[in-house]
Predict the structure of Aspartate aminotransferase.
Amino acid sequence: AFTADVVPQAPEDPLFGLMAAYRKDTNEKKVDLGIGAYRDDNAKPWVLPVVKEADDLLRKDPDLNHEYLPIGGLVAFNQASQKLILGKDSAAIKDQRVVSLQTVSGTGAVHLGSAFIAKFYTPKTAEAKAIYISSPSWANHNQIIDNVHLPVKTYPYFSKETKGLDFDGMINGLESAPEGSVILLHACAHNPTGVDPTREQWTKIAEVMKQKKHFPFFDCAYQGFASGSLSTDAWAINHFVDQGFELMIAQSYAKNFGLYGERAGCFHFVAAPAGNAQDTVARVGSQLAILQRSEISNPPAYGARIASLILNDEKLFAQWEEDLRTMSGRIKSMRKALKSHLDQLGTPGKWDHIMEQIGMFSFTGLNEQQVGRLRSEFHVYMTKNGRISMAGLNRGNVEYFAKSMDEVVR
Ligand code: PMP
């Protein structure tokens, strides 16, 4: 029954294919700039010291067992996650307008939100039932939304000329989307471009979305990892909440805790302050629980336990903030180093965007052919769109990478 015309061979996931090719390369100069995970100055995975400490504490707990978590996950984790993303003194939390479920990391949270939209969202016109993503966006957004049978539409985001935000294009895109569309926004450290709106631009984006009655869906995969400050990186979300939007948030702890494989994340639905918000979150929460139960029954426990321990302990929390500054600081220093090597080499082109972009990634502007040459001649691995993971650079390879880049650009 499953012949090739029914089930065609799917292409390999480009990122995972890239990783496999990198592993096979035996050249000692090889550089992995595809990886979407933090690396230390020795190009090694980094277990955050605070995570190591929480892990040790957990393992010493004689009562630790492997029972199921509730459908919605670990309650202490969900509550701490709300406070982290919305702020300790959030009016939305005080008013009990937030319902949160622990998810299979950020991917699971984006999926849960998308599944909820697919099942329950009833905008005035059928054409508004779609999810708008930025062009470009994290590639998986397409598949996650498509999997729940919702149309994926796009709004302009990146300007190839300035290698910054195409702000006018974005505003036009939001204005021309049918009223009441679902708009997926990257809360900070936009993947893949590293380009974020300024606060002034966010304010305007919120105004337009309010006029058009759009529904915001924030994907927050880098809180604290981007700027080094947890509240700075959550600014856009909190601005929208303050403006009285009803919205959803997908929160990942993969990058900011380095808990990638443990799959710790959280989904939040925030009801608007008007109307009977508590009733809304109760109903929405009951349906989210059914979606969750039918798909994963209950979320994985260990990573959430680690995160929860840290989030709910003042001392560990402060230590975590220190670790976040270590990661974001190292990445910022690599941006500086790369830019100054390119300056010294007099590499043709303008490279200020490397300093202006934020977070794990930088959209270099290198084209597919240049990316191909970097890989075949210089053993430097990155995605075809010219995105580099800043975390793959370190004091040992940044000069080599700058020189390789210089050669393929000339
Ligand atoms: N959204 C964006 C924009 C991301 O970059 C990522 C991580 N690559 C995720 C969501 C989710 O990742 P995870 O499922 O590992 O939390």
Notes: Residues 223 and 233 are 5 Å apart (CA to CA). The two ends are 53 Å apart (CA to CA). The mean pLDDT is 96. The longest strand covers residues 98-104.
